[in-house]
C-alpha cells in the first residue's frame, strides 16, 4: 500500500490447471473495484482508517468462479487531530492529541526555531519534552500501524515565553535616577521596566536592553523588574526582582549659629532613614568639615576674618545626596596686631595700625576721665583731635566686617605729653649766661630748653617742679630759636611745642630784641642789656 497516492495493491496466486483467457475482478466492501488479467490489481483511492473486506472473482467464457475467501485489510491510520500543548511548568511542554482508530503507535516530530529537531515515540496520546524559553516550536504527530503511517496532519505552532534578561545591573547614576542594563534576551521584542516603592510605580518601555528611570523619591528602596515581551506570547512575568535604594534626601533648613569667635554650630533637617551627614565649610584659605548621624555639628578653630560657604551632604550605603543649599558664614574680623598712637600736636594725635583680615571699617576711641575722642574710618590710620595734654587714655579699636560683625580690640593705654609751657622768657645773668623761664601747670614733669642759633646751639634741663634753667656762655650777635618742651618718660623732648626767636646783641645798644613766632603771630620783646658784669637783667 502506498499511502502517498492512497492505493491498495491486491495480489493472488493463479491456478496452473486453468487455461485460456481469464479475467479477475477484485472487489472491496468500500465500493472499490479493479480488473486484471494477471495476478495483481490496485484499488484506488484508499482512505485512512478504513477496513476493507476484499474478494477476487475469476471469469472466462464459461462463466465466473466463486468469490475467493474474503481477506480483511486495515488501511493506514488517519492523522491525529486536536493537537494541543500545555506548559504547566516553565520549560516542560506536553503535546496532546486525540487518539485515532487502528493506530498502534504515535511519532511526534518537534522542530525548534534554530533548526534543532527531536522526536518522541509513544503509544499514548501525549508526549512531554523540554521546551526552552524564547523559541518557536513546530510540532506534528503521525500515527502508525502495520499498513504504515498516517498522512501529514495539522502542524502546531507554539512559541514559548521570552527568556528573562540576564546580567541585570541597576546603578544609581544621579540622586534620583536609576539606570538599568541587561543582556538582550531570546525571544524578547520589547522590555517593560518598572521601579516600584511603597508610594509609586515608574515605568519604562523600550526595545533596547537599557532603561533610565528618573524623578524617583529620595532615600527609598525600589523593586526593579525587567519584563521581556513579544507579540505572540505576551510578557514573561516570572523574572527576578532586583532591589535598589535611591540616594539620601537633601538636607534642608540649614541654620548657622556662631557660638564664639572661632566656633559655629551648623544644624539642618534631614528626612533620611539612616544617613551620615558631612558639613563642609569652604573658604579661600582653608576647609573645615565635621560628620555626624544627627542633625547638628560644630565646626571649631575657625580663623578670624574669614568668609566661608557652608553646606551639608547626606551619605548612605546607596550614595550621596545633592549638597544642601549653601549659607554664607563670616567670622569676626581680626584685630590689628600692632597699633601705634603718635602725638602730632598738643591736642592732636595720629593713631595707626597694621593690616587686619576681614575688616571693612574701624572705630578708634581714646577715652579718659575728661572725655572721649572717636574716629570712624576704612583706612589704617586716624587723625584725632581734642586731646588733653598730660592725660592717660584708654585705647580701643572696634573692627567691623562687611556683614557688620564686630571685634573689640584693646591695646596698651596712651598717655599724652605734658602741656607745653606758657610765658617763656629770657633773662641775662652773669658771664654772658641766660636764664630761660616759663610757666607750667604740672609740677611733676621735667622740661628742657633749647636755643638754636646760626652757629651755636645751647640746651638746659630743669628738674621736676622747676620752671627755669640756665644757659651759659651764650654767643651774642646771633638770632636764636628758643623752645621749651616737656620731656617724655624716655627723656626725649616733644616736638610740637612752639618756638620763639630771640636776637642777642653784643654792643652799640643797651637793648636786645626778642622775636616770638607762634601760630604765625609775631611779637617783639624788649630787654635792657646790662653791662656784662651785671648779675641780672629786667624784662621791659
Structural features, described:
It is built from no helices and 48 strands. It is mainly beta and 540 residues long. Strand 10 and strand 11 (117-122) form a beta hairpin. The strands form twelve sheets. Strands 43-42-45-46-47-48 form a six-stranded antiparallel sheet, with no helix packed on it. Strands 2, 3, 5, 6 and 7 form a five-stranded antiparallel sheet that branches.
Which characteristics define this entry?
mainly beta, 6-stranded antiparallel β-sheet, 5-stranded antiparallel β-sheet, rod-shaped
Provide a quick synopsis of the model.
The chain has 540 residues and is an all-beta fold.
Topology, pairings included?
Elements: E1 8-11, E2 23-28, E3 32-36, E4 40-43, E5 51-60, E6 63-64, E7 71-74, E8 84-89, E9 92-96, E10 105-112, E11 117-122, E12 126-130, E13 136-145, E14 148-149, E15 156-159, E16 166-174, E17 177-183, E18 190-196, E19 201-206, E20 210-213, E21 221-230, E22 234-235, E23 241-245, E24 252-260, E25 263-269, E26 276-283, E27 287-292, E28 296-299, E29 307-316, E30 319-320, E31 327-330, E32 339-345, E33 348-353, E34 361-368, E35 371-377, E36 381-384, E37 392-400, E38 406-410, E39 414-415, E40 422-428, E41 434-439, E42 447-452, E43 457-462, E44 468-471, E45 478-486, E46 499-504, E47 511-518, E48 521-528
Largest sheet: 6 strands, antiparallel
Radius of gyration: 64 Å
The chain-level mean pLDDT equals 88
The number of helical elements comes to 0
> What is the rounded distance between the termini?
177 Å
- Which stretches of 5+ consecutive residues score pLDDT under 50? 508-540
Tell me the strand order in the biggest sheet: 43-42-45-46-47-48
Global morphology: rod-shaped
Q: Give me the secondary-structure category.
A: mainly beta
* Percent range for β-strand residues: over 45%
Q: How many individual β-strands?
A: 48
Helix content: under 10%
